[in-house]
Amino acid sequence: ETIHETASSFGAKGIWGPEKTQTGVCRLTLSDLDKQVRDWFINETKQLGCSIKIDEAGSIFATYPGKDNSLPPTAIGSHLDTQPTGGRYDGVYGVLSGLEVLRTLKENQFVPNYPITVINWTNEEGARFPMSIMASSLWSEQVDKKTIYNLKSVTDSEPVTVEHELKRIGYLGDTKASYKHNPIAAHFEIHIEQGPILENEHKEIGIVTGVQAYAWYKVKVSGKASHTGTTPFSARSDALLAASKMIAKGNEIATKLGGLFSVGILELSPAVVNVIPSDVSFTMDARHVQDETLAQLVEEAKLEFTKISKESGKSISVEFDHIYTSNAVKFHPDCIKCVSDSATQLFGESKVRQITSGAGHDSCATSARVPTSMIFIPSRDGVSHNPEEYSTPEQVENGFHVLLHSVLQYDQL
Amino acid sequence: ETIHETASSFGAKGIWGPEKTQTGVCRLTLSDLDKQVRDWFINETKQLGCSIKIDEAGSIFATYPGKDNSLPPTAIGSHLDTQPTGGRYDGVYGVLSGLEVLRTLKENQFVPNYPITVINWTNEEGARFPMSIMASSLWSEQVDKKTIYNLKSVTDSEPVTVEHELKRIGYLGDTKASYKHNPIAAHFEIHIEQGPILENEHKEIGIVTGVQAYAWYKVKVSGKASHTGTTPFSARSDALLAASKMIAKGNEIATKLGGLFSVGILELSPAVVNVIPSDVSFTMDARHVQDETLAQLVEEAKLEFTKISKESGKSISVEFDHIYTSNAVKFHPDCIKCVSDSATQLFGESKVRQITSGAGHDSCATSARVPTSMIFIPSRDGVSHNPEEYSTPEQVENGFHVLLHSVLQYDQL
Ligand SMILES: NC(=O)NCCC(=O)O
Ligand SMILES: NC(=O)NCCC(=O)O
Fold it and tell me: Which residue of A has its CA nearest to B360?
């Protein structure tokens, strides 16, 4: 219910069915809608007796007191921001499940041993400001404040900075964004799988043991523009033909190595029906569960693409600009055990499986500093970043139960 | 000299070298600059004693009188409009060589047997209003007036129609645009090759015997958007991977059949680094000297693309929208002979060759109604539709001599 209430109040967009719960959500980070859902979240958690901290990157820490408040809290974190064409579950589910844990404690007048904090990390999506997992990476001291403050929005007609928007919506907090100054004991995150594995295998819960490594590059192919009608094949330096062969080859290499290779963006010029493209640039998103094999995948792609460019005409060349690499993450055995025990107790061995996350999450950042693990629930058709993103109410509730039990088990531990 | 004078006065743009003759030209059809060059052209030809007709599509016929003016004139035609990133020679060279022929007659007080008309055909490029070879196709009655009048500009922020722009610049003439009402006896056109063949073979003149057929399609590949990190290859319907394989396959088919296949425009959505593209559309420009083989090329491409789409995931499909087909053109033996005799006399067998035009020209339209042929001169590196388009002053002059002799030989004939 809370998922659908917040979706309809704060950013419903992208209708895909007749029910009023069948829309997606567009709630870009640090937008007016993001401010509204943040205000609502603070109000809800305050009513439960939480104290609120807002850090320099706008991340909200709503802390529910335990018996001993001298130690750092156990954290449940994810994000309330969405993609421009986002669904109702990605990120939101994690924060609202944390809220539901606190509500459950309150209703049952259950006091944990140690405090529990629910975190809304700013800009996990990287859609408005082009750095995903932004605020949690600042907190883990893997990026610096200046870099994130100066990030410029790519979705506004007049670009603004992160710092400007934090101030504008009143969420530039005074808590230092650092695991040293604002520590947590552990980080649990529940999320939709965003892939088809659990659904295909009829599993209810994914015990996430880690996150695969990924590397992003911009590949630029330069050839020579010429007339499509008058230029024999032998005289061409066709940048798009070369890029097409690279895309097919990248797929082959990744298949061979058991990794992934995808091209999400491709741009070309001059973009005229009867002119052979001189310039093509495309993004390359390469993934593998092992850092070494990912490096090998990227290396082979570079070699093969260069070979293709040489074979494709005398004036063709290719360049690789590195955008971002996220190393493989292995979650903490203690946290994995809490999730595994809880899931198995609640649903039985046959309904759960260990899984490696294909996508990055805020937990990648926290995992660098504190014990961390994640819980996945099935995503219908594996769809995400799309209004049609869907998990059934039962799946949503199942995941919530695993989260609740995991956090209480960790609290005991 | 006239080429460079008109370029610097009417639309010089796109500097590529230190000399003031080293810029391209941007003179979109029916723009203010096009009006200026038209006014200049009329003034120049009037001074030579020409009478002027302007037809309903704005095409200008500047007619130099002969001894017997009761028969239709021999025409020299091409176009003064350019691509947005045009060079100095494409089109312009043909009209200004016609002017130079008239100047030469005048200077030498030579009166031809029959009148000679120099034609500036409106909108050959199809860059501002998306129909190439527009006004000459109206004249040959291969398209109708309503269609061309209603064409909307694609290069203006507020689109306007051809009719609007003809009126605005004062070039909506009262001569009916029809080969029946405004006849010519024959059509000669001199043009840069726009390809590398003459240059590579060290030839001075191409005797153009015809134009290859070409067909344009928009190919739409529909797949399913999903997350690049969480979607195994087996669960993908990657529209860009499928399109890439199609582009490589199209190239193979054309190579096998001795034709051409090119993709100049490719667009995709949603265009996010970590989202597999659901929709890709690309233009397909297929060419062959024979209509039947072109049809076979297109047929094989359709079959193979459909096969690729079926092999590339359960939710992939492909659609083909026909944009335009231009049938193969064979020029008239009489006109070809005039060009061939003139070129061989002036430069010798070893410096001339027969050639098929890879690109469409206004002569394709006139050829449907009256004896027509073309003369090509070499294009440096085969470059055209680009500021760096270049032919040497000697090449330009050589072509002019062949044109002059050809037209006078036809006049004798
Ligand atoms: N969960 C998610 O979509 N993260 C963005 C980074 C990635 O593509 O893995
Ligand atoms: N000459 C020329 O570029 N014509 C346009 C039509 C074509 O692409 O052949």
Answer: A229
Q: What is the pLDDT of residue B264?
A: 95
Backbone angles phi, psi at A114, to 5 degrees: -130, 160
Question: What residues contact A311, with CB distance under 8 A and at least 6 apart?
Answer: none
Arithmetic mean of pLDDT, B64-87: 96
Round to whole Å and give the CA distance between B310 and A176.
54
> Cβ of B230 and A264 within 8 Å?
no
Contact B229 CB / ligand 1 (< 6 Å): yes
Q: CB count, 10 Å around CB of A256?
A: 10
Of A264, A287, A358, which has the smallest distance from its Cβ to B271's Cβ? A264
Separation of alpha carbons A77 and A91, rounded Å = 9
Provide the token pair at A349: 């061995």
> Cα distance from A265 to chain B (closest Cα, Å)?
5
CA gap B53, B182 in Å, rounded: 9
pLDDT digits (tens, 9 = 90+) for B88-137: 999 999 999 999 999 999 999 999 999 999 999 999 999 899 899 999 99
Which residue ranges of chain A lie beneath pLDDT 70?
none
Closest Cα in chain A to B355: A230
Bridging pattern class, strands B186-192 and B372-377: parallel
* Mean pLDDT on B209-219: 96
d(CA A30, CA A166): 6
A17 burial level (CB within 10 Å; 0-12, 13-18, 19+): exposed
CB B91 within 8 A of CB B49: no
Alpha carbon distance A131, A122 (integer Å)? 11
Q: Per-residue pLDDT for B225 more than 90?
A: no
- The answer on pLDDT for B204 being more than 90 is yes
Q: Is A341 on the interface with B (CB under 8 A)?
A: no
3-state secondary structure of A133: coil
CA distances from B255 to A125, A223, B297, B320 (A): 45, 20, 10, 21
